[in-house]
Every structure is written in C-alpha cells, then in structure tokens.
Amino acid sequence: MADVHQEGSGSGADFDLSQFYQIFFEEAGENLDQMEQMLLNLNLETADDEELNGIFRCAHSIKGGAATFGFSDVAELTHKMESLLDKLRRHELQPTSEMVDVLLESADASRALLACHQSGTVGQGPATGALVQRIRSFVEGGTPSPNVAVPAVAAPAAAVVASVQPVQATVSTPEAAPTGSASGVARQLLIRLSKLDHAAQADAIAELFRDIPGLGEIKPVVAPDVASDERVFEVQTSSSNDDLLDLFAFHVSREQVSIQEVTPVDAGAPASAGATVAVEPAAYGFFDGAPGAPQPHTAGPATTVRPADVVKGSVAKAANAGAVQPEAATIRVAISKVDQLINLVGELVITQAMLAQNSRALDPAVYQQLLTGLSDLDRNTRDLQESVMSIRMIPMSVVFSRFPRMLRDLANKLGKKVEFVTQGEATELDKGLVEKITDPLTHLVRNSCDHGIELPADRIKAGKPEAGTITLSAAHQGGSIVIEVRDDGKGMSREKILAKARERGMDVSDQLTDSEVWQLIFAPGFSTAEVVTDVSGRGVGMDVVKRNITALNGTVDIESAEGYGMCVSVRLPLTLAIMDGMSVGVGNEVYILPLSSVVESFQVRSDAVSTVGQDSQLVKVRDEFMPVIELEKVFQVPRFDTDKTSDMMVVIEADGSRVVLLVDELLGQQQVVVKNLESNYRKVPNVSGATILGDGKVALILDTGALVRRSRH
Amino acid sequence: MKDSEKPANEKGDADIAVSEYLTFRLGQEEYGIDILKVQEIRGYESPTRIANVPAFIKGVINLRGTIVPIVDMRLKFNCPKVDYDAFTVVIILNLQHRIVGIVVDSVSDVMSLGSGQMRAAPDIDSIIDADSIVGLGSLEDRMLILLDIEKLMSSPDMGLVTAAG
C-alpha cells in the first residue's frame, strides 16, 4: 500500500520531459516492430496498397515523434525511408528485395539510435550516412542505373551486422575481415585511392565526410610513396569498411579503394577482443551503441566469428535486454487487464457495501473483532479502488505539454512565429485514449503550424498580428470529450481542395457543402501543399488522423474560413472517463446529470411556470424564460405513487443554451465511472452512457446536449 | 459452427458433427442454443429500465462492471404467461460483438445432438424468423427448436443494434 502511494506522489511530482521521451520510445519501438513485421511479410510482386500505406504510416509516425523530441538523426533517417516508401505506395517504384533490405537495416539503425537516445549516450549510435545514401539512390534512381547499382547490389553483402548472413570465410583480405563488427567504434583508417582518372574524385570522397554528419573526419595525407593517380587519406570513423565502400562507390569503384587499419594502441589484445565478441554475439555492428553491450576492441585481425543465423530483431532485443535502462520504472500492461481489475474492484466495493449494510445490526460488544475487520475492509477497498482507478486516468496536460517544444522548433524551422495556448489541461482522460490520441494530435498541430499559420510578413500584410496562435483545448461536452486544434492562419481553400481532388481523379462536384469538401482532405495521400517537407505535405497526416480517431469511435470535424483560420475538433466518446455527476430521482428511478452542465437547482413555485400552446412549459428564472423538460415524460417513468409530482428544477446548460429539467428530487453528487452503453447495446436517445451506482444498479447518464437540442425543435 | 451445422441440416443422414446445445423452456416450448455461445446463467434481477424501447427489452444490468442489455424471450415470442419468480433465469450470451442476457422460464440441460437427430425445420409461419431456426432436434418424444441465437439477436427487429446506415 505504502509503495503505491509513494509511487503515485512520485510520478505526480516528476513531470519532466524524460517522461514523454519514455512514451515516445515505447511508441517508436512498437512502430518499428510493426514495420519490421510488415516488411518481412511484404509480397514484392503483389504488394497491396494497404500494406505499403501501413509501413509508410509507421515510418511517418516515428519521424513525427523523433522530430518532436529533437532526435534529428532518427528523424532524418526515417524521413528518407518515408521518401522511398512514398514512392513505393504511389507505384512510382516497384519494391525489390534490396529495398526491403535497406529498409530493414534502416529500421534496425533507427532502433539503435533510439536506444542511444534513451540511454543518453548520444553520438555512439551507428552511422546512418551509408543507409541514407543507399535509400537516396533508390529514391532518385528509380530504376537503378549501373552507377547506383553498385551499392544496391552490394547491399546484401554489406548488410553489415545483424542480417542473416553467414561468415564469408573466403573474404580474408585484412581490410574486409573486421567488416561490420567494427562499426560503432571510432577507428583510425588509412584509405588509399589508386588509379584515379582525375583528382576530383578524391575530393568528392572528402566531401562525403563533410556532408554526412557523424561519418567521421578525413585528412589528406601527403606521403612520399603516393603516385600521381593516387590519394591517401587518414580517416577517423565509426562506420564499417563495407559502409565506407558503399559510400565511396558513388565516386570510385570498389577496386580502387583500399582501406587499412591504423593500428591503435590497444591492438596488443586481439585474442581477448575476439573472445569477447564470440561470447556476445549481440555486440555486433549497429548495436554496439546500445547501452550495456560490451564495446569490443575490434582492432584485432579477423578472429571474430559471425553467428550464422542471427535474426535481426532478436539481436536488437538481446542488446536491449542486456541493457540496464530506466524503462524498468514502468511496465506496459494490456488495457483489458486493467479493465478487468477495475471491474473486479467495483464488484469488491459493492460486496463490501453489502457486508457493511448487513453488519450494522450486530452488537458491537459481541462481534467486536468482526466489526473491526469489516471497517478495515472498508478502508482498504476504498484505497484499492482509488489506486486502481488512478492507473487509467491521466490529465490531458501530459499530452499537451509535448507540444510547446515541438512547435517552437517547428516554427523556427519554418521561419514562423507561433504562440501556443492550451485550455482544459486538467480534463482527465483515459490512458488508453490519451495514448491513441497523441499521434493524431501531433499531426494536427504540425499541420496547423505548417499549412495554417502564414509567414510573419504575410500575416502583417493580411492585417493580422505577426505571431499566429495555435490553441489546443480539451473539454467534456455532452458525454464526449472534445479536443480542438484551432489556428488563426490562412484556413483552407475550397477551390484548391476541389482542384486537387479532381487532379487525383476523385469524383467531386461543385455542389458539395463546405464540410463535405473539408472531409476530402482525409483521403489517403491527399495534400495541397506544394512542397513536400519533412514536416508535412505528403498527405499522410490527415489519413492517419481520421483512421486513428475512427478506430476510437470518435469523429473529426473541420471548420475553416479562408483567411481566418481553421479548427479541427476531435470528438471522442467517453469509454472510461470519470465524471462528476449529480444524481436525481424521478419516480423510482435514478438518473445522473453531468455536474459540469448543472447551473443551479431550485424548488419550483407553481406561479413561475407558464405554458405556451397549452403544452410547452416555460419557467421564469430571475429575468429569463427557459423551456422546461419533464424527465418523467421524456423517459416515460412509471408513476406508482400518484400523489407525488416533480417539483425540483435543475437548470442545465449545454451547447450554449439553457433548459430546465423537472425532477422529483436531488439525491446527491458523486464521481461516476462512465460506461459505454453501445458496447453491448445501442445508442439510446438522450442518454450518453451509463454508470454503476454503489448498490450495483445501473443508472443512465443524461446527454444534456441532446436534451437542450430537443427543446429547440 | 454454422458451417458444420449446415450439411447436417440439409442432408440429415451422416453423423458428421455432434453439437452440444443448452436447452431452455419458454412456456411449453423447448429451445436449444449452441452451448459455446453461453457465458453464464444467473438468476433474474430487476434491470434498469430504458425508455422508449420495445417491451421485450427489459433494460440493462451490471454484470461485473459491464452494462448488459436484457431481453425477455417470453415477451419476444409472445408467451401467454410471463412471471418473474425464483425460477426465472437469465442466460448471458457471449455473441460475436456483444454480451446480451436473455430471460427464459427455466434452463433444462445440455444435450449432445448428432446430425442424425436433427431435422430441417419445415416452413412455418411463426414469429421467429425462419432464418434464425437452425433446425429441429428430435429426442424420443421431445422436440427441440434449435435457434441460431447469433442471428436472432442481431436481427433488426430485435432492436439491439443500431440499424445500419
């Protein structure tokens, strides 16, 4: 018990950024796993759009998250992957097994990079330059030209690390031997380029090192034995020889390059280095950067033995598993398990209430021990219930606080000025929902910043303040949670969207209503952005947003006014949101009103009620006439006690208007767990959900929004 | 399940599949439903009424934290006598997408029926949609009406699901 409390208060106080890192790492890990799985299952000849879109979305999500947290290396690599995948899913390229190899390796590299970020050992991750180059060659090459084909074909052979690659015992040249196993550790190399046609080729190599961050340093060496068609460089790099050769292949052919290891000081221990490596197969290649994995002193000659059948994923996992990482502080548990726990505790509370009820008549003198036990049970169940409930509920601020940093970076990158405003951060939301809503919200906020907000100059020209405002708000509304992303940017252009839709071959007419037009942007691949940036513009965002939200039984609505901004509102049903409710009695039945919509309640005086058309009732509250809704009639409550009538009035407010509900009595206020009626039944008019009362009975929660709308008609 | 029943239903000769059925009584009639659809059997407790629904939908109950609608099959099938007493039971069905409770007069037992004991249902004009009747089980002098409870519960006139569209 004590642990639970400590845990609770501790996590409450520690709202530092690393908490959100953790969420990102977990998500990215899942996305990578999923991508890997899909890539492996991909049928090259008959790859269908759904699969390719799925892989693409994974890469896109990782990129989005990585950019948000400023992990630029991961973002860059995934951006490249995304470019390739984008071409594939547009059928501009035909997927080949080489591409899948590159993508898988990139996924591994991303994983390793993420592991480095997670453990805080930035800079020790694998060099991604080679991968980036190879992907670029696919993207640009379309059909690989002979020049490009070298790295492409070499890819499987070079497949460094963890690919399912037996040792090539025949490759016994000293240069090739430490292949792969050496990457990740900075090495001193002497690279000799011979038989050059002209010196510029060598300069191009030197430029490579400048252009690719993290590749290493290069220094030309002027040696007496260098021939006129030769160049020698001294290189400090963490990339493997094969990676380097792949890179160089753009400029010089493989035969022209010879790489020599400059023996560092610790070369005296090749035997021990070899032994380490043999024991720890997980230490190979890209994962050397992973924390906890031993750093092999790979300077020694080829005493290493490559394990023949190591499958990529397991290597990565082995490296991670061996690591001592802070992630032990949290565990990921299936939501269904937590749900089950919550339900069981609910049952326990009800049983406990029943016991308490039955024991009240007992003589305390005789049953003292039993009664003490029961009161302990009472306290413990209540504590237990609180703890269990708190597992799932987290405030929206956890999500919202991810954005300021992201927006700041993004705005800087785009040269825009953006103010970020959040509202309703305290709105508590189910953990499951929070996790699923984060990605779509990230897309929406990025979209707002990238497409919505104009450049400062344009804003001033349009008579708007220089800095744009993006507002993120959350609120409970009519039994749903509504999250809005609002910006005061340029809004959407109806004409542009229609034109783009026609360009894409969609069948659209000019007669579509505005809201129908806005819905078009949810089509996969739809984007009106002229330039594809690494921020957005590929048209993947809205597609993902819509899909994710629909999966949560939610809806997305867009309002937009060209020149004035737009507002995307995401409406989610309450699956397990806790709500402050007011219970009211009508006849023998109990209904729950969301406390947030209750304005006031009062005993009615008969002279205050007047009728319109003999039927509709109005009541005068202070100076305002408000329509009266009799719950007894709306819900056809059977009346056994004919003398009693409803004489309590509750003023509720929803959707900006007020109505008065006529009820029998007010029973009290309590926190209720909102249960979905629709999971086993269907939507019931005027009811937003149900809850379970202390005695185990079900009570319906009124949909105040619907009741208010009802009075309007 | 449905696939394995179909050939038996149509041919009625070879003993292909033996299925187990939970049998229950509604008035004088005896019905059988696939035992695998049954989650549990409990006593009747008065549910929370829902306004503006057909009379056979009694309301919803709390089944260990899950809100479960309760359908009174006796009202649905127009049984003349509908009592709620100590013997009235609720069969909780675990269907494909939802959990539903049905009220019946009593639960009899679990029967294994080979396809030899199953007869195709003749065309009859009944309140039960013919599609929802898998067949008739004949056991000596008893007749079991075998229901496709999944289909019956998801039919639109049951009102348990929001009509499509």
Helix content of chain A: 40-55%
The coarse silhouette of chain A is elongated
What would the principal axes of the Cα set say about the shape of chain B?
globular
Characterize the main sheet of chain A: 6 strands, mixed
Largest interface, chains and sizes: A-B, 31 and 24 residues
In the sheet with the most strands of chain B, the strands line up as 8-1-2-11-10-9
Based on secondary structure, the structural category of chain B is mainly beta
CATH class category of chain B: Mainly Beta
What is the N-to-C succession of helices and strands of chain B? HEEEEEHEEEEEEH
Task: Report the radius of gyration of chain A as a whole number of Å.
Answer: 32 Å
Number of discrete helical segments of chain B: 3
Unreliable stretches of chain A? 1-15, 143-184, 264-327, 530-539
Task: Tell me the strand percentage band of chain B.
Answer: 35-45%
Task: Give the mean pLDDT of chain B.
Answer: 81
- The total beta strand count of chain B reads 11
Mean pLDDT of chain A: 72
**Poorly predicted tracts of residues of chain B:** 1-15
Present the secondary structure layout.
The complex is a heterodimer of chains A (713) and B (165).
Chain A lengths: L1 H12 L3 H25 L7 H21 L2 H18 L7 H23 L9 H13 L4 H13 L28 E7 L6 H12 L4 E6 L9 E7 L3 H8 L8 E5 L8 H10 L32 H10 L13 H25 L8 H25 E3 L1 H4 L2 H12 L3 E6 L4 E3 H22 L3 H6 L6 E10 L2 E8 L6 H10 L10 H6 L21 H11 L3 E7 L3 E9 L4 E9 L2 E6 L3 E6 L5 E4 L3 E6 L2 E7 H4 L13 E7 L2 E7 L1 E9 L13 E6 L5 E5 L1 H9 L1
Parallel strand pairs in A: 6-8, 13-22, 17-19
Antiparallel strand pairs in A: 1-3, 1-4, 2-3, 5-7, 8-9, 9-11, 10-11, 12-13, 12-20, 14-18, 15-16, 16-17, 18-19, 21-22
Helix pairs in contact in A: 2-3, 2-5, 3-4, 4-5, 4-6, 5-6, 5-7, 5-11, 6-7, 6-9, 7-9, 12-13, 15-16, 16-20
Chain B lengths: L1 H10 L6 E9 L2 E6 L3 E6 L13 E7 L2 E7 H4 L12 E6 L4 E6 L1 E9 L3 E2 L13 E7 L2 E6 L1 H6 L11
Parallel strand pairs in B: 2-11, 5-7
Antiparallel strand pairs in B: 1-2, 1-8, 3-6, 4-5, 6-7, 9-10, 10-11
